[in-house]
Specification:
alpha/beta; Aminopeptidase; 7-stranded mixed β-sheet; two-stranded antiparallel sheet; 8 helices; about 30% helix
């Protein structure tokens, strides 16, 4: 069953398409929330016209198809939140106002965070570059454009995520958020790269038991699993992961080589097997006794 979206969540920037989708179970029976913030693939004509890159180059910044990999979650009693807009358009795994002043045609407000390492790398809330390092835009942007994206996309996504976490915590007394991502192949990952990287902000965002159960389940399925290296968790993990308050957040990064052709942004033959294994992971998490997270 879909979550009804209030009219305020619709936006003129993406006609007829809300900025997020929530797949709910008929009844939530487990203290789990799954989220896929970077698998959105709806590119507006205006955005494509403003970009100097072709659609395929833009899409390589997506965590493509990750929402499909975890589509079984509602069948096990947990909601699944998905952003419909692409990461390169607005990145919800950043603070709301991490903006690069060099991208804009005028000065930014003093309260904008223009000095974060992510801004310096070109990957703020509004990305300056794509994953390959190429600049996204032909021309400088107006701050009003960034403000519209943040208010009409970033804020609704986080409002929905916070609501799901609050509902889950109210029902069970605790909540485990699984934030679902994918990672590209990289020469620096060595000859035996990880299939999965689990990020719990070095143990500060999630109970060790939860991280360990995910690690052991994936390892038991034959995958190479690493913790916090090179991805320890982004804004979502660090902002929502508050174990002392009964809210735990674990980021899962999945190697794209397991399930997709990165160059063409297409599903590969491994997609079916990986989906089956991640469904097993979801089933394992749904069966676990999470009362220790109180």
């Amino acid at each position: 069953m879909d979550l009804p979206l209030p009219a305020a969540l619709t936006t003129s920037l993406v006609p007829d398409l809300p900025p997020l989708h929530v797949a709910r179970p008929e009844r939530q029976t487990v203290p789990l929330v799954f989220a896929s913030p970077h698998s959105g693939a709806h590119y507006t004509a205006d955005f494509l016209a403003d970009s100097r890159l072709d659609p395929t180059a833009l899409r390589r910044s997506e965590d493509s198809f990750v929402d499909e990999l975890f589509a079984a979650a509602p069948g096990f009693g947990a909601p699944l939140l998905t952003a419909t807009f692409p990461r390169v358009f607005c990145d919800v795994n950043r603070e709301p106002w991490e903006l690069d002043p060099g991208m804009f045609d005028g000065p930014l407000p003093a309260w904008v965070n223009s000095a974060s390492p992510r801004v310096g790398a070109g990957l703020g809330t509004i990305a300056r570059i794509v994953a390959s390092g190429e600049p996204v835009y032909r021309n400088k942007l107006a701050f009003a454009d960034a403000e519209a994206r943040i208010r009409q996309f970033w804020q609704p996504y986080h409002a929905a995520l916070a609501a799901l976490i609050a509902e889950t915590h109210a029902s069970f007394g605790y909540c485990l958020l699984i934030d679902c991502h994918s990672m590209p192949a990289h020469p620096g990952h060595g000859v035996s790269p990880a299939d999965f990287v689990l990020g719990d902000a070095h143990g500060t965002a999630c109970a060790p038991r939860a991280t360990r159960l995910v690690e052991e389940t994936l390892g038991g399925l034959g995958y190479r699993v690493r913790r916090n290296d090179p991805y320890a968790g982004g804004y979502v993990t660090r902002h929502y992961g508050r174990p002392r308050e009964g809210v735990h957040a674990l980021q899962i990064e999945i190697a794209r080589s397991l399930y997709m052709n990165e160059a063409r942004v297409e599903r590969a033959p491994g997609m079916q097997a990986l989906t089956r294994d991640l469904t097993r992971l979801v089933a394992t998490l749904a069966k676990a006794d999470w009362s220790v997270l109180r």
